[in-house]
Amino acid sequence: MRVSAWGKLGEVCNQYLSKGRKVLVEGKLVHDESGNPHTFTRNDGTPGAAFEVRAATVRFLSAAPSVGAGDVSWDEHEAASVSEEADDSIPF
Q: What is the pLDDT of residues 33-47, one digit of tens each?
């Protein structure tokens, strides 16, 4: 399943996520006009179909690898959460 994240949420995911990291994603299921999954052709020529999740909130569940002293890291017991709505909300 594909997951897409846009704006500030996409930037944070790009910076802190890597293969194997555990996350919880909340968002909207994206489909084609008839409600079916998007169809595509794989590299080997076989057909495939998949839905996409457009992320609204991403919660980091596993610890971030520490690369440098200035990097942000989370421990297993305190999950960090990033929401697309946080930046888009109007404060009045």
A: 889 998 989 999 999
